[in-house]
Write a sequence for this structure.
């Protein structure tokens, strides 16, 4: 039986077809399942938090690109690595302050940019903004792409089967601590 | 559409969780976003940061490495050496005002 928000779909303002509703419900259920998985998963922590740095390999790549024919001592690399961690903490802290002052709950890109200005790294702003634009464009493209893929018509029976499967899974998930709506 | 927004959040979050070794990838970032985010989160006082914010910090960190390395290299060349040493990096830090925050943190063994 197809699950639809309206008992009689033709009375819905949006006039959704049952198939479209089914697709949407399947999407929503995937969404819920994914969120629950993320909430319950414990990512393996190979490194203690206070030893966390950016990966050496990434940094070595950057150095190689900057100074292709120059040797850099291991000690120097180690130092730069640790400086990066300090840098990230410094900028995040400052951005956190700015965010608090604005009474916002989430630190956004503008907070980071402002903190760079404040800390004397204002000349990073231009490059950072340019790259941010690219990132947004790519994210928007991805969203458009995923919408198009959904319309590629997974057969209705398959969608129905998936929906049933997801319903079954969701009812099996632990519900301790969740209030009944 | 609420559904679409939700998906975007999940998509981005999952990408952050999986593949810690996976590089920024988008727009040519070298640093893995998930790692940058973990470093940020090591600070308990820090609030939630948006994906964009992590992205911008990652880029800024790359620019930071660039500045530091290039500055250090100036000292290497001045001394007529071919290998950038730790000393060169130390000197760069001392010479640049904005890097004063690193002063206390330089004594790692």
């Amino acid at each position: 039986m197809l699950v639809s928000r309206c008992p009689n779909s033709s009375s819905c303002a949006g006039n959704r077809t049952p198939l479209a509703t089914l697709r949407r419900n399947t999407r929503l259920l995937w969404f819920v399942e994914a969120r629950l998985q993320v909430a319950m998963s414990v990512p393996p922590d190979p490194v203690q938090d206070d030893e966390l740095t950016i990966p050496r390999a990434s940094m070595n790549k950057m150095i190689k690109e900057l100074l292709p024919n120059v040797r850099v001592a291991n000690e120097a690399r180690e130092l730069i690595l640790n400086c990066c961690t300090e840098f990230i903490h410094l900028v995040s802290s400052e951005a956190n302050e700015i965010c608090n002052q604005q009474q916002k709950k989430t630190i956004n890109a503008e907070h980071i940019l402002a903190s760079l200005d404040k800390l004397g790294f204002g000349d990073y702003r231009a490059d950072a903004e340019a790259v941010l634009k690219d990132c947004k464009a790519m994210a928007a493209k991805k969203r458009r792409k995923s919408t198009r893929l959904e319309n590629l018509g997974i057969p209705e029976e398959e969608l129905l089967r998936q929906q049933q499967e997801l319903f079954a899974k969701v009812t099996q998930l632990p519900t301790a601590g969740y209030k009944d709506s | 559409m609420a559904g679409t927004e939700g998906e975007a959040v999940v998509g981005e979050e999952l990408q952050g969780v999986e593949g810690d070794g996976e590089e920024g990838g988008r727009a040519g970032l070298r640093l893995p976003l998930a790692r940058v985010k973990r470093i940020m989160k090591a600070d308990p006082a820090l609030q939630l940061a948006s994906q964009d914010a992590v992205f911008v910090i990652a880029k800024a960190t790359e620019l930071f490495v660039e500045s530091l390395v290039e500055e250090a290299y100036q000292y290497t060349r001045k001394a007529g050496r071919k290998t950038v040493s730790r000393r060169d990096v130390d000197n760069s830090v001392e010479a640049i005002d904005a890097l004063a925050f690193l002063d206390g943190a330089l004594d790692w063994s």
